[in-house]
Each structure stands twice: as C-alpha cells, then as structure tokens.
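dumping this here so i dont lose it
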C-alpha cells in the first residue's frame, strides 16, 4: 500500500469471491506435489513451464511470457514515509497507536513506524487514511475508532456497537 498498490477486500467468509485465485493455488500445489517435490526449485520449474511452455486459452493460446512487457515505471524502493499535505499526519507507534491532542488512539500494529493522515469530515468525525486506503473513522464524540470494513455508511452518525473500540481520547480537534 505504501507503494500505491490498492487493497481489494473480499467479503469475509466468502472465498468464492476470489475463486480463480484460490483455484490457481490449488493447481500449483497439486502439480508440484505430483513431481514429488515441494521446494523452491520445484516452484521455479513450474513457473517456467506455466509462463513459457504452456499456452493459455484465455490468452488466445499464447503463453504469458509472450505478452509480458517490462513496466515503464521504475521501482524506486519503498518510501521512508507517506506525506499527507491536506490532512493531519500522525506517526504510528510500535504499539500501533497514534496521539491526537495528547490522547492515545489504537489503529493497528501493522502500521507501526508509518504515518497516517487524519481528515476531518464533520465536527465529531475524522477519517483515518494510510496512503490511499481508508482505514476507518474516528468518532470524537464517543472516543471510538470504527474500521472501514465495519462502517455501515461513511455518512451515518451511528455505527454497530460491535464495531466500536473504546479509546482514551478527549479533544475534538486535530492539532498540527
């Protein structure tokens, strides 16, 4: 996500939403197991065959290697941090928390060391962003963080009680 790659969330408990991807993993496992190997060398042999020897019906019976083109964008490495020029930036601690007006708010330990952006949307609500990914909303009136995947509607004032995580937060404004 720090590289600008978007996250696509599937519905929880619905693996059929990603059936083709799951099927590919199953097929790879079966083919490698049939070789009697399960190491990186076996995977390299499988990848070579898949990309350069096997024609694919979906590609008009061409091999993926025939169609592959090197990206015009060059990989510049992972950025040291993300910038939020129109938001209130906050650095996530090793414990997955940020400070807002001297109070502690838990977001996620997965974001430790990164900055997030806080964007006021009403007097009592702020959106929390990691790059282009909406993490959720902070409800300043109830000192709650509501994850984006649990929000019923971004404009709704009330969210399901199960989605609320109590915070030790008091102030309502984001100070720079």
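and the seq i came up w/
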């Amino acid at each position: 996500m720090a590289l600008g790659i978007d996250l696509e969330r599937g519905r929880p408990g619905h693996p059929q939403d990603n059936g083709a991807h799951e099927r590919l993993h199953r097929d790879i496992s079966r083919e490698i197991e049939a070789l009697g190997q399960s190491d990186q060398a076996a995977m390299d042999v499988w990848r070579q065959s898949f990309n350069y020897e096997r024609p694919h019906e979906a590609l008009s019976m061409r091999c993926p290697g025939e169609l592959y083109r090197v990206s015009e964008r060059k990989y510049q490495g992972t950025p040291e941090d993300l910038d939020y020029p129109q938001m209130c930036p906050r650095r996530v601690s090793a414990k997955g928390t940020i400070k807002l007006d001297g109070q502690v708010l838990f977001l996620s330990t997965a974001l430790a060391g990164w900055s997030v952006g806080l964007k006021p949307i009403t007097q009592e609500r702020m959106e929390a962003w990691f790059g282009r990914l909406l993490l959720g909303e902070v409800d300043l009136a109830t000192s709650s963080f509501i994850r984006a995947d649990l929000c019923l509607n971004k404009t709704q004032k009330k969210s399901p009680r199960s989605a609320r995580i109590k915070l030790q937060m008091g102030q309502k404004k984001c100070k720079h």
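Residues 19-34 form the longest helix (16 residues).
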